[in-house]
Write a structure and sequence with these properties.
The chain is built from 2 helices and 4 strands. It is an alpha+beta fold and 97 residues long.
Length: 97
């Protein structure tokens, strides 16, 4: 069993309230969940207007499939025009870790 995680550090565009922030972050999280069947959530910087941290996790029995899903998720977030992807942290864990 392999568990892959991604943590995205995002800079949001012209956002002036937490409500505006949620209106940008929520669709990204929902699309990740819908398209790739991953667990995803806003995981940090909840009190900042222009920054967001989104984390996701996926479980697989195959590292090739796991890497493919993580790559697709990263490309999806990087392609969103309303956010700037500042950094991505990727981790892969095995059941022996």
């Amino acid at each position: 069993m392999y568990v892959g995680t991604l943590s995205f550090d995002l800079l949001l565009g012209d956002v002036h309230s937490l409500k505006e922030k949620r209106s940008l972050v929520r669709p990204i999280v929902a699309e990740l969940q819908r398209k790739y069947a991953v667990s995803a959530a806003e995981t940090g910087n909840q009190d900042l207007h222009r920054r967001a941290e989104v984390g996701l996790a996926v479980v697989s029995g195959d590292t090739v499939h796991l890497t493919d899903v993580l790559d697709r998720c990263e490309r999806l977030v990087a392609a969103r025009p309303e956010v700037e992807l500042l950094s991505v942290r990727r981790r892969v864990h095995t059941d022996e870790d």
